[in-house]
Amino acid sequence: MYVTAVMANSTFQLIEDCNATNRALYKFYAAIMIVIFILALPLNASVLHLFIVKLKFWKSNTNNVFLFNLVLADILLLICLPIKAHNFIQGERRSGNEVVCKGMLFMLFLNRGASIAFLTVTSVDRYFNVVHPGRKNFLRALKKSPLISILIWLLLLPLTIPTMLKNFDCCNSHKNGDPKDDTLIKDVVDSMREAVFFTQIVIPFVILVYCTVHIVKRLRMKTVGNTTKLRRAVFLVTSVMVVFSFCFLPCTIARMVLLIARVEEWPEYRQDKAAVAFDGLMVLSYMDCLLDPLVYCFCSTKFKSLYLTNYFPCLVKDTAIPPDSSTGNTQNCTRTNVI
């Protein structure tokens, strides 16, 4: 009994100190993050170059302003991955340096929130263009300028405040740790932090489901005329839904299970398993940086053609460029067809 108590206490101490109880598994997590970083950094850098040099997104009448901010958020998120991978290799769930730890929390929360926000805004904009094509909306008025993008970044900044008040990168929330630390202020901070985590994912997911259902319904109602734009809209919102569901919903469910484990005071070894599962599914959420380029392709035929022409010319042949079916633009351009 004494040995069991000592082992439980030891495991609990490891959880509190943010040390990985399964170092081999955390090294595997680190390897996944390194692979994501190696693949996603050049991919997103090339997309960023295309938006700035070729598409000149600030002059665009399409979703390119939103997509530029999406790729910018992905690149900023990628910067955190080598540091996170280094911590995991060292058997730590977070950096022992207070400044680095809080900086990482700030970057991860801000840029993941921005990525989710711009994915959602892109789908909402496509929803208005397809379901309510003749109705004026604030997105259509502001998407030609950086105003709405700046507003989104500014609104996300206050949401990172709860993450900076107290370290929680090791899942230390609600009745986890010394009972003497369970004060009203700590409970309020913990609740705010968890509210930010869940609302960043749940609310956008509900919006995406709504947009997807209505765009698909609109496509089914279309009996005459050109349905290319509608089909592309369906592909877009469906791809966003797939990316969102694959990357963000699993870690949300894991976080919910972990909170239940904390509040109901499950045995420490079960709490540790829940924390390890949550860490792993958070690593899965970083796959978003690799999957977002699919959204760019579904958003614009012109983007896809330009990307292949500039970076993979061996895969294309030169003909006349199609108008961008995502915008209905009919001006003449150069076409690139995939071989």
Automatic annotation (TrEMBL):
Record-annotated membrane-spanning stretches: 28-53, 65-85, 105-124, 145-165, 195-213, 234-261, 281-299
One CC-aspect GO term: membrane
Source taxon at top rank: Eukaryota
Subcellular location: Membrane
GO molecular function: G protein-coupled receptor activity
Keyword Metal-binding appears in the UniProt entry: no
Protein name listed in UniProt: Hydroxycarboxylic acid receptor 2-like
